[in-house]
């Protein structure tokens, strides 16, 4: 059984890799239009293997994890010196009261300061979190691959596309199953590279090439933070493995004391997320902990397109639509969510870090929803919607409770289904419309593409959070967890104020693994309440833009652009079947995975809670999977209100929309304070009469002065109004809050200036020096070459003389000694 | 005779060996003829052989162990014979191509 | 000299190789032909390999039981055992590459001679005795002369053969002279003594009265000179460019690998083994040799237009890198310098052989690929060969993360580790060495990349035929594949190299014990053997 599991674990990534190699080798010559076969076959295999693994995890007791080490990839001996002197790592760690016994701390402390190797093992892990991610990734990939057979049919880069897809699935499955931060980073980059390749898949299009570059560069910022975070973890914890690792016996003293050849003498290096560390709660809080959290979060923001690094995702829609569905909606962008969920113990140690996670998530959710309201590009609306939903997930993770984290992951899974469905539906529309994606150019496609319409409708309902579709359950779970968090914090606050001294009983009403100060409690309660309200507003906006998109595309008068060439039709079966399957999943996944509403169980959360790093790390496990009817009602009400609002605006004639837009665009406000208006005011009869009276009183100069002053005042007052002309709410939303322009001006241009300066310096100074140095070996070479005379006797002499010189080098007294020796021999001969 | 022998020590043999070695070097460096060079090399090897025999001799050193010192030169002589056989073949080949056995004609490969 | 039946029992693989080689010689005259005898040669290597592997367990049981002398004429340790498998692999690869070398009627001579050479190599791997070492080295040299002679019959080849022959003989003579002196000083021929009644050369310095080390030093330096020729260290490298250029690609490949392996192993077995740990005179010699060798080789290679000449200078440079490891080992035996050198040697041998195999694949009797320019456009006409060649060249250049990079990393970190740990004087010298090594790696990249650039970015001038045969192709791919394995799995190579390092074993026995347990899993399947291995090694 163990062997089979190990093989399955390696098979999940290995099959796509093999398919990628195969298609890359044979694709251009032999496979050509059959390039999808190896990939689809490999994905079926991977998917089945993942499901078996998930089933296996499901059958195991909670806290199950399996770590399989295949081989050592890199090894630097004695890399981690540990702490100097007697101070151990543990003395800096805030051990939460009551969770760690002194014996535990002592054991950990004893093993900490020893020198350690920096070893990167190719190690795969299997636990509930990984199992869920694997199953989701391979399942969606399989459907998208099948869909792509139809969508990419006839493309010049057909084999290239499938190679990249297989490569991506390999990287993504490795990303979620590795058990080491270095490898996590490696595959983090690998999925980034695949994403870059696929965004720029049609590299002849300048926009696609630029979008790929932008995604890559923006991600670099995040990756930089991530890398620093990993370094910080290394210096803080002395290991980069998630799991506990037996350390090789390095120390001579330790080794000679230990029996030779015995494995039991090996000490255990507690992994960053290993059971030993979780059991003792030996995590660093304070400034270092916060720094680790924020740096990891920066990485997650880059990959998962959170503010302020979200700008790459909408542009990434230049890639083929299946790519948008797979990489930029369902899988790769959730890598950040996965990583934060995986590192929960690190975040739990730093409540401020968690608050930042939640805040970033909420703000991004709102921002993206506001932008999505006014976009006309169908795929961009979906892209902003993805950003917004990812923000929800971060909000769930940021609550720091088990309920919140499982809600976030739950939303990740349901979102993968319905967002992939929506993207594939959009692709289907695009396919039929001759690659036109501007919603102003088509409409009323309900009759033309009925199956696409119905599946799209299911996706929209799920995304809006209408019961009983999947999005409702997961979004509701997030809202409920935030609400519960607020209540717990407020309860704790009240309890503290009631009690004279802090209660010594941490089991009751503890807000997390780390004891919070009153200040933190108050701030947290306030912030989470604000977030809860913001999330509700975002939910409303979500259903508005979702149905706006639906109505614009499928309702109204039937309009088909010229690019479609009069051949607008429903997509072929290969593209529709994945849609139907995904629609089925999007519809029922929520009900199947969350049964709290009728029997109070939550299979998904229960399974996820079995992840070792979640069970031990998160203290508050109460109310797991409980169904809050009040919150569900509120969120459903908000969603329905949004749908109603969208229907009111966009069904029937759309005059209301135009009027609303005019209002939001502040039309007619700006001229209110112009100079011409004021001058016209002066012509009013009453004013003119008074004016003439002043003239007669020889006080005309006073009057003119007064008028000029008023005009000046009016001009100053009208500046904000004039600005509003350009920055009206509508324009802000339509222009994506001008963040791209802001980055352009504040980041890109200054950097270009510096780059120019550097290039000038480089050309004139550095190059000169380097060129001079670079010629040195070449000149030396010409000199040394002249010794290669070709004469064998010269070579022989050179060898002998060279040897003699070496002898003199080694034994400096040799010359004098040999001289003396020879003289003595001579003397002896003479005597004889 | 005995007195004479008593004055001769290992050192004297070493000098003979060293002289042979140096002679070999000089011969090798000055002779153009490939066979002459080969002779020089034989002198080098025999210089070493003299050392071996001298070091291993029971007459010269009371504490010498075993027959190693005598056996090694035997090995070396056999090897030298084998090498001489190869040398003749090589020299013949060289003669076929260059119509001479002067090694200073072998100077086309250089730089 | 201490020989008993158990010692003879240890060398049966070499015996078999020599017997089969003789059979191939005789049989070749009776029934000329290429394929049959080549297949016989390949299967001999394979069978010997497998039987050795099978008997490994029994051998270590015998060692544990005291039936085999560990420090007799043949030393029985991890380095010796593992490197013999490497030698067999080398023989298999070279025979494969040379499967279409020379005239049809001489084919058996080639394969038989190569087998002799491999037997010599395998003997060097374990030699612990002066005569044994010398005869084994000659068993490599003499077949090499024959192979050079068989290579081609033109002016250049004749000249190359004469040059190699004479210079190699001089080197042998210097080696022998050095050995005679060591013998005299030590009163014995065994290097590391296993028994009390046989004095070892290793302990000779301790027995000498103070101030009487000159004779020992003369011997030691002469031995270094003789072996320096084998590894083509400056100033004993002069033969390399001329001989490589004059001979065939296959022979050049052989010369680049086989003598170097023999030289490095002999240096470990004799030169390093006899130096006491606190000797201050050992490392300056190696330091000078390393500095001179790598710089000289690299700067001269910059100008070469002939591929074999370029590779010759590059092989000189690589010898220089390997000497860095020896310098480190002489300064601090526990720093793992020898292990790093062994790792580098493995990587260099595979990648270098891969390069020559690819060139051999493109050449035959009538036309050898000579100039760099002849490779123009190879990427288009022979993409696989160009890919393999480029891969091996990249590895030689030490581009991360290829195997050559790991090798250089091991060497340089060894030096840096001593710098960080050590005191003022020696440390700064080693720092200079490491920095020079890195600079040299940069210079070296220039000429390797030039070759790759010609292959990939230049339009073809003449159509390159590929008459070298499938054997050469297979050899190329096998070498490339092995380099690839070392690139993606350097951890294993690091561990094995460290476990094979005899100095490290003496310095830190417990450290190696843990690693050797893992490495010995290749031979042993049960746990208790690991313990015996440990006992047997010391």
Structural overview:
- The complex is a heterotrimer of chains A (832), B (111) and C (538).
- By secondary structure, chain A is mostly helical.
- Chain A has helices spanning 2-31, 36-59, 102-111, 128-151, 158-177, 181-199, 206-237, 252-257, 275-280, 286-303, 312-315, 321-330, 335-342, 344-348, 351-372, 378-398, 402-432, 450-464, 470-498, 518-554, 573-593, 603-609, 612-615, 629-650, 655-664, 675-682, 685-696, 700-726, 729-734, 739-785, 792-810, 814-831; strands at 66-80, 116-126, 245-246, 268-269.
- Chain A has 32 helices and four strands.
- In chain A, helix 1 packs antiparallel against helix 5 (158-177), helix 5 packs antiparallel against helix 6 (181-199) and helix 7 (206-237) runs antiparallel to helix 10.
- The longest helix of chain B has 31 residues, at 68-98.
- Chain B has a single domain (8-99), classed as Helix Hairpins.
- In chain B, helix 2 runs antiparallel to helix 3 and helix 3 (34-56) packs antiparallel against helix 4 (68-98).
- Chain C is an all-alpha fold.
- Chain C has a domain at 279-507.
- Helices cover 75% and strands 0% of the residues of chain C.
- In chain C, helix 19 (469-488) crosses helix 20 (490-500) and helix 22 crosses helix 23.
- The two termini of chain C are 21 Å apart.
- At the A-C interface, strand 1, helix 8, helix 30 and helix 31 of A face helix 7, helix 9, helix 10, helix 12 and helix 20 of C.
Task: Give a brief outline of the structure.
The complex is a heterotrimer of chains A (832), B (111) and C (538). Chain A has 832 residues and is mostly helical.
């Amino acid at each position: 059984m163990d062997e089979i599991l190990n093989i399955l674990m390696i098979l999940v990534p290995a099959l796509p890799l093999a398919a990628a190699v195969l298609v890359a080798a044979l694709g251009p010559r032999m496979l050509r239009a059959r390039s999808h076969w190896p990939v689809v076959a490999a994905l079926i295999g991977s998917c089945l293997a993942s499901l078996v693994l998930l089933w296996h995890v499901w059958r195991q007791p909670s806290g199950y994890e399996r770590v399989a080490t295949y081989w050592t990839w890199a090894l630097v001996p004695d890399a981690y010196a540990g702490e100097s002197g007697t101070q151990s790592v543990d003395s800096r760690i805030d051990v939460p009261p009551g969770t760690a016994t002194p014996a535990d701390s002592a054991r950990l402390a004893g093993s900490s300061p020893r020198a350690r190797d920096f070893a990167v093992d190719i190690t795969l892990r299997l636990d509930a979190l990984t199992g869920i991610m694997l199953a989701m990734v391979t399942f969606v990939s399989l459907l998208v691959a099948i869909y792509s057979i139809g969508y990419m049919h006839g493309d010049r880069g057909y084999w290239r596309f499938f190679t990249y897809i297989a490569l991506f699935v390999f990287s993504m499955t490795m990303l979620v199953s590795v058990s080491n931060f270095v490898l996590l980073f490696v595959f983090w980059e690998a999925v980034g590279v695949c994403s870059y390749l696929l965004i720029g898949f049609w590299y002849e299009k300048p926009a696609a090439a630029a979008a790929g570059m932008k995604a890559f560069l923006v991600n670099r910022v995040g990756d930089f933070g991530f890398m620093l975070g990993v370094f910080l973890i290394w210096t803080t914890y002395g290991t980069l493995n998630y799991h506990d690792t037996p350390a090789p016996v390095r120390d001579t003293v330790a080794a000679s004391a230990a029996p030779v050849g015995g494995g039991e003498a090996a000490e255990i290096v507690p992994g960053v997320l290993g059971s030993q560390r979780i059991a003792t709660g030996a995590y660093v809080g304070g400034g270092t902990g916060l720094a680790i959290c924020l740096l990891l979060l920066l990485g997650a923001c880059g990959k998962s397109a959170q503010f302020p690094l979200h700008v790459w995702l909408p542009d990434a829609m230049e890639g083929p639509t299946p790519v948008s569905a797979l990489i930029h909606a369902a899988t790769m962008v959730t890598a950040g969510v996965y990583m934060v969920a995986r590192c929960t113990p690190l975040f739990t140690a730093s409540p401020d870090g968690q608050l930042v996670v939640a805040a970033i998530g909420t703000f991004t959710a709102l921002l993206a929803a506001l932008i999505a309201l006014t976009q006309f590009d169908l795929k961009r609306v979906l892209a902003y919607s993805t950003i917004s939903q990812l923000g929800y997930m971060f909000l769930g993770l940021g609550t720091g409770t088990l309920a919140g984290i499982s809600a976030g992951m739950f939303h990740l899974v349901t979102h993968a289904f319905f967002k992939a469905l929506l993207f594939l539906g959009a692709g289907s529309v695009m396919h039929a419309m001759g690659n036109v994606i501007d919603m102003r150019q088509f409409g009323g496609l309900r009759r033309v593409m009925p199956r696409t319409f119905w599946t799209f409708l299911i996706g929209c309902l799920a995304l809006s959070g209408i019961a009983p579709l999947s999005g409702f359950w997961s979004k509701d779970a997030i809202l409920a967890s935030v609400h519960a968090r607020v209540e717990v914090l407020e309860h704790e606050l009240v309890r503290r104020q009631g009690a004279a001294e802090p209660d010594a009983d941490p089991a009751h009403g503890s807000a997390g693994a780390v004891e919070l100060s009153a200040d933190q409690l108050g701030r947290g309660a306030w912030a989470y309440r604000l977030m809860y309200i913001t999330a509700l507003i975002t939910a409303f906006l979500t259903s508005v833009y979702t149905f706006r998109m639906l109505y614009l595309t499928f309702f109204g008068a039937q309009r088909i652009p010229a690019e479609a060439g009069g051949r607008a039709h429903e997509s072929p079966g290969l593209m529709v079947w994945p849609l139907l399957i995904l629609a089925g999943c999007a519809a029922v996944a929520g009900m199947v995975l969350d049964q709290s509403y009728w029997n109070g169980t939550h299979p998904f959360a229960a399974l996820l809670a079995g992840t070792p790093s979640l069970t031990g790390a998160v203290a508050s496990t109460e109310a797991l999977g409980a169904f809050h009817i009040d919150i569900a009602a509120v969120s459903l009400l908000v969603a329905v209100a949004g749908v109603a609002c969208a229907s009111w605006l966009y069904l029937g004639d759309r005059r209301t929309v135009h009027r609303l837009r005019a209002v939001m665009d502040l039309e007619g406000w700006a001229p209110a304070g112009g100079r011409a208006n004021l001058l016209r005011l002066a012509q009013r009869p009453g004013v003119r009469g008074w004016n003439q009276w002043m003239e007669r009183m020889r006080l005309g100069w006073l009057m003119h002065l007064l008028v000029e002053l008023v005009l000046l005042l009016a001009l100053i007052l009208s500046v904000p109004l004039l600005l509003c002309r350009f920055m009206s709410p509508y324009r802000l939303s339509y222009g994506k809050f001008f963040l791209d322009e802001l980055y352009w001006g504040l980041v890109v241009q200054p950097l270009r200036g510096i780059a120019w300066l550097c290039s000038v310096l480089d050309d004139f100074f550095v190059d000169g020096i380097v060129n001079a140095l670079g010629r040195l070996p070449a000149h030396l070479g010409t000199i040394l070459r002249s010794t290669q005379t070709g004469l064998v006797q010269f070579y022989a002499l050179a060898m002998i003389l060279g040897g003699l010189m070496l002898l003199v080098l080694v034994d400096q007294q040799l010359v004098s000694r040999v001289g003396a020796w020879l003289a003595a021999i001579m003397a002896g001969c003479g005597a004889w | 005779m005995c007195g004479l022998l008593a004055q001769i020590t290992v050192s004297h043999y070493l000098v003979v060996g060293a002289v042979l070695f140096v002679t070999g070097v000089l011969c090798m460096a000055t002779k153009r003829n490939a066979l002459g060079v080969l002779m020089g090399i034989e002198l080098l090897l025999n210089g070493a052989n003299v050392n071996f025999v001298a070091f291993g001799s029971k007459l010269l050193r009371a504490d010498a162990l075993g027959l190693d010192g005598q056996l090694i030169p035997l090995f070396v002589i056999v090897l030298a014979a084998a090498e001489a056989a190869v040398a003749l073949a090589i020299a013949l080949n060289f003669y076929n191509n260059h119509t001479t056995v002067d090694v200073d004609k072998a100077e086309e490969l250089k730089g | 000299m201490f020989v008993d039946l158990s010692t003879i029992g240890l060398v049966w693989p070499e015996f078999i190789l020599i017997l089969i080689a003789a059979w191939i010689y005789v049989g070749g005259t009776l029934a000329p032909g290429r394929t049959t005898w080549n297949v016989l040669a390949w299967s001999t290597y394979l069978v010997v390999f497998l039987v050795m592997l099978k008997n490994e367990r029994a051998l270590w049981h015998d060692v544990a039981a005291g039936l085999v002398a560990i420090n007799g004429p043949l030393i029985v340790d991890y380095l010796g055992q593992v490197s013999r498998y490497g030698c067999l692999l080398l023989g298999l690869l070279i025979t494969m590459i040379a499967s279409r070398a020379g005239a049809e009627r001489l084919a058996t001579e080639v394969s038989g001679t190569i087998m002799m050479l491999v037997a010599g190599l395998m003997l060097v791997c374990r030699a612990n005795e002066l005569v044994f070492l010398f005869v084994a080295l000659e068993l490599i040299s003499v077949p090499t002369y024959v192979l050079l002679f068989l290579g081609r019959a033109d002016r250049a080849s004749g000249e190359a053969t004469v040059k190699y022959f004479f210079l190699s003989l001089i080197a042998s003579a210097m080696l022998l002279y050095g050995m005679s002196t060591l013998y005299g000083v030590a009163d014995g021929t065994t290097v590391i003594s296993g028994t009390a009644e046989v004095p070892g050369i290793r302990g000779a310095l301790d027995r000498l009265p103070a101030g009487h080390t000159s004779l020992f030093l003369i011997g030691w330096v002469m031995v270094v000179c003789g072996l320096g020729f084998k590894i083509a260290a400056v100033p004993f490298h002069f033969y390399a460019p001329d001989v490589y250029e004059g001979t065939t690609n296959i022979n050049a490949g052989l010369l680049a690998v086989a003598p170097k392996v023999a030289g490095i192993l002999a240096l470990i077995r004799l030169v390093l083994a006899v130096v006491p740990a606190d000797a201050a005179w050992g490392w300056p010699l190696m330091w000078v040799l390393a500095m001179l060798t790598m710089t000289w080789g690299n700067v001269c290679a910059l100008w070469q237009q002939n591929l074999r000449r370029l590779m010759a200078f590059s092989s000189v440079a690589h010898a220089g890198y390997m000497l860095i490891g020896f310098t480190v080992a002489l300064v601090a035996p526990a720093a793992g310098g020898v292990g790093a050198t062994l790792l580098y040697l493995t990587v260099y041998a595979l990648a270098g052989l891969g390069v020559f195999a690819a060139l051999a694949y493109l050449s035959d009797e009538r036309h050898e690929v000579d100039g760099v320019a002849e490779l123009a456009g190879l990427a288009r006409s022979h993409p696989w060969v160009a890919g393999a060649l480029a891969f091996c060249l990249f590895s030689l250049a030490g581009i991360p993360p290829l195997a050559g990079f790991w090798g250089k990393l091991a060497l340089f970190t060894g030096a840096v580790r001593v710098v960080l740990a050590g005191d003022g004087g020696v440390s700064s010298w080693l720092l200079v060495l490491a920095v020079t090594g890195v600079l040299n790696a940069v210079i070296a990249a220039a000429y390797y990349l030039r070759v790759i650039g010609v292959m990939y970015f230049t339009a073809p001038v003449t159509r390159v035929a590929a008459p070298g045969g499938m054997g050469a192709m297979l050899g190329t791919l096998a070498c490339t594949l092995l380099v690839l394995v070392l690139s993606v799995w350097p951890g294993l190579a690091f561990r094995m190299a460290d476990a094979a390092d005899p100095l490290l074993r003496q310095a830190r026995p417990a450290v190696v014990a843990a690693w050797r347990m893992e490495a010995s899993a290749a031979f042993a399947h049960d746990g208790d053997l690991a313990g015996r291995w440990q006992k047997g090694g010391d």
